């Protein structure tokens, strides 16, 4: 009984229990806080409306394109934010710039073809949906599924109107017209900036970022240990230079190993091996500078910060921003450096490098700021040195 009492009165027991509760709280928020109920909202989609309408035999003008535009843009239940563009060319340019998950193209002859059911040679009216897979495969597929459902509903409505008009005019359907009557409008889907096979369903940019951050943390700690040992616990200009050089060596080798394994045994498809490797080295080194800035100032206490940043960011890296709560978008996704790394890899893998320089420039500016903070850690070491000298001067002989 005494042993039991002693066991439950130990500080390590209650400290461990408190630590477990804190870990459960942190990790639950980190992994589930933004993913419990991911629902799309305001998915950006472009609409190009070129339909000219058609004059019907009864004198009325049929404008199915205009009707569809009103139904689509006026439907508040659709999780889509529409932007009307002037041409398909403009829409494709915007898709390449990752502005939209998809673009719906309604051609000029859309109403004319829909109304051709009453002609000897009926033609289906066909709209085109350009699905921008590279922006985010899950979100793009969600838009495609929504549009397919919308067109199914509109098709029934249009077919009903055509049949009602023919009935009012006492027109009979020929055998050739019967199949056409059931499906007056169709939606063809074309994938642009496609996600290649063996790309983890479009999640490879996020995975690359996660691997680089974690492996760079190991590099940063190993190099910091060597720095402390070589400089006897102080950061000097020469030790800082050695730290920076060692970091470049570590991330270069690390990136090469990761990419070789990913593209070799694992079969990851990348457009260009060496372009991808160059960006990996650059990104990993920017990560190294960020980590080094924290470690040089607060030492091993930086480790929990670096790990927690990873845990909170990791679950949201591959999710479309429109699927996340506003709090996550504002307080996490808007400032974490990982998002720029993910977008950089995305431009390389799926967009032929369009917009790549912008992402690299942003990462470079973040790395430059981190380097300045690292360099300022010399002042901290200098202050400690001055304090030590003063103590030694005041010591009694």
From TrEMBL:
<dbReference type="GO" id="GO:0140359">
    <property type="term" value="F:ABC-type transporter activity"/>
</dbReference>
<protein>
    <submittedName>
        <fullName>DUF3533 domain-containing protein</fullName>
    </submittedName>
</protein>
<dbReference type="InterPro" id="IPR051328">
    <property type="entry name" value="T7SS_ABC-Transporter"/>
</dbReference>
<feature type="transmembrane region" description="Helical">
    <location>
        <begin position="297"/>
        <end position="317"/>
    </location>
</feature>
<feature type="domain" description="ABC-2 type transporter transmembrane">
    <location>
        <begin position="24"/>
        <end position="376"/>
    </location>
</feature>
<dbReference type="InterPro" id="IPR013525">
    <property type="entry name" value="ABC2_TM"/>
</dbReference>
<feature type="transmembrane region" description="Helical">
    <location>
        <begin position="12"/>
        <end position="32"/>
    </location>
</feature>
<keyword id="KW-0812">Transmembrane</keyword>
<dbReference type="Pfam" id="PF12698">
    <property type="entry name" value="ABC2_membrane_3"/>
</dbReference>
<keyword id="KW-1133">Transmembrane helix</keyword>
<feature type="transmembrane region" description="Helical">
    <location>
        <begin position="207"/>
        <end position="227"/>
    </location>
</feature>
<feature type="transmembrane region" description="Helical">
    <location>
        <begin position="361"/>
        <end position="382"/>
    </location>
</feature>
<keyword id="KW-0472">Membrane</keyword>
<feature type="transmembrane region" description="Helical">
    <location>
        <begin position="239"/>
        <end position="261"/>
    </location>
</feature>
<feature type="transmembrane region" description="Helical">
    <location>
        <begin position="273"/>
        <end position="290"/>
    </location>
</feature>
<dbReference type="GO" id="GO:0016020">
    <property type="term" value="C:membrane"/>
</dbReference>
């Amino acid at each position: 009984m005494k042993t039991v009492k002693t066991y439950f009165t130990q500080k390590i027991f209650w400290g461990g229990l408190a630590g477990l509760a804190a870990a459960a709280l942190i990790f639950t928020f980190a992994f589930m806080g933004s993913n419990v109920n991911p629902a799309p909202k305001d998915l950006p989609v472009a609409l190009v409306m070129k339909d000219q309408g058609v004059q019907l035999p009864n004198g009325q003008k049929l404008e199915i394109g205009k009707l569809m535009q009103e139904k689509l843009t006026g439907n508040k239940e659709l999780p889509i934010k529409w932007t009307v563009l002037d041409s398909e060319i403009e829409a494709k340019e915007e898709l390449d710039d990752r502005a939209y998950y998809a673009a719906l193209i309604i051609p000029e002859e859309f109403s004319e073809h829909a109304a051709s059911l009453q002609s000897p040679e009926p033609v289906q009216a066909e709209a085109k949906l350009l699905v921008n897979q590279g922006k985010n495969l899950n979100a793009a597929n969600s838009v495609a599924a929504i549009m397919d459902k919308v067109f199914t509903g509109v098709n029934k409505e249009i077919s009903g109107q055509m049949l009602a008009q023919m009935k009012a005019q006492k027109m009979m359907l020929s055998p050739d017209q019967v199949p056409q009557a059931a499906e007056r409008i169709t939606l063809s889907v074309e994938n642009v900036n496609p996600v290649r096979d063996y790309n983890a369903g479009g999640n490879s940019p996020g995975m690359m970022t996660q691997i680089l951050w974690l492996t760079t943390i190991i590099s940063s700690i190993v190099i910091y240990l060597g720095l402390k040992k070589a400089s006897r616990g102080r950061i000097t200009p020469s030790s800082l230079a050695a730290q920076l050089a060692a970091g470049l060596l570590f991330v270069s080798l690390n990136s090469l190993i990761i990419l070789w394994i990913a593209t070799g045994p694992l079969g990851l498809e990348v457009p260009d091996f060496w372009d991808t490797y160059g960006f990996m080295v650059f990104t990993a080194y920017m990560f190294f500078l960020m980590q080094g800035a924290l470690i040089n100032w607060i030492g091993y206490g930086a480790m929990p910060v670096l790990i927690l940043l990873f845990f909170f960011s990791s679950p949201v890296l591959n999710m479309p921003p429109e699927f996340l709560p506003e709090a996550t978008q504002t307080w996490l996704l808007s400032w974490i450096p990982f998002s720029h790394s993910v977008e950089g890899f995305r431009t390389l893998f799926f967009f032929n490098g369009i917009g790549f320089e912008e992402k690299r420039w942003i990462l470079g500016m973040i790395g430059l700021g981190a380097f300045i903070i690292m360099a300022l850690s010399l002042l901290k070491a200098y202050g400690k040195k001055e304090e030590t000298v003063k103590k030694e001067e005041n010591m009694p002989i």
